[in-house]
């Protein structure tokens, strides 16, 4: 069994996943708009460019997401964080810096009693992240 986070956005999915692909050095494997689906012609034109599904591969891990429709907006993404576990302090610093660009640092990346580096942030799309490097390798 694998657990894959699935993020829902209010129209920012394409921008967010392009940012995540760059920040996490991943590869977008799929990105489909509502307009590209078999029922796209039946949908209102203003929904055609929204993302119905995207899939980002980072190493052997998958992050997925989509946009919601205006009649079903999401308020925020509080109460959940995506935890990234990296192998080196340098990678922790790179990822933390990249993801926090335009967002807010909740806990600066620093040494803790359980990790060589740990930090928490909310990115510019409202997604909470925890970056953890247990040991520098």
Topology at a glance:
Blueprint: E1 6-9, H1 13-24, E2 27-33, E3 51-58, E4 61-67, E5 81-85, H2 89-100, E6 104-110, E7 117-122, E8 128-133
Parallel strand pairs: 1-4, 5-8
Antiparallel strand pairs: 2-3, 3-4, 6-7, 7-8
Can you characterise this structure?
The protein has two domains: 6-67, 2,3-Dihydroxybiphenyl 1,2-Dioxygenase, domain 1; 82-133, 2,3-Dihydroxybiphenyl 1,2-Dioxygenase, domain 1 (Roll). The protein contains two helices and eight strands. With 137 residues, it is α/β, with parallel strands linked by helices. A hairpin with a 5-residue loop joins β7 and β8. The strands form two sheets. It has a four-stranded mixed β-sheet, with helices on one face. Strands 5-8-7-6 form a four-stranded mixed β-sheet, with helices on one face.
């Amino acid at each position: 069994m694998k657990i894959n986070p699935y993020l829902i956005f209010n129209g920012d999915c394409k921008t967010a996943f392009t940012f995540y692909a760059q920040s996490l050095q991943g590869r977008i494997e799929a990105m489909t708009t509502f307009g590209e689906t078999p029922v796209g012609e039946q949908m209102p034109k203003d929904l055609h460019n929204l993302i119905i599904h995207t899939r980002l591969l980072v190493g052997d891990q998958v992050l997925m997401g989509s946009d919601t429709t205006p009649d079903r907006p999401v308020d925020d993404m509080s109460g959940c964080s995506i935890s990234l576990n990296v192998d080196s302090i340098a990678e922790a610093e790179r990822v933390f810096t990249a993801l926090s660009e335009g967002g807010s640092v909740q806990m600066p990346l620093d040494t803790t009693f359980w990790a060589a580096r740990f930090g928490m942030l909310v990115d510019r799309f409202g997604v909470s992240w925890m970056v953890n490097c247990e040991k520098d390798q």
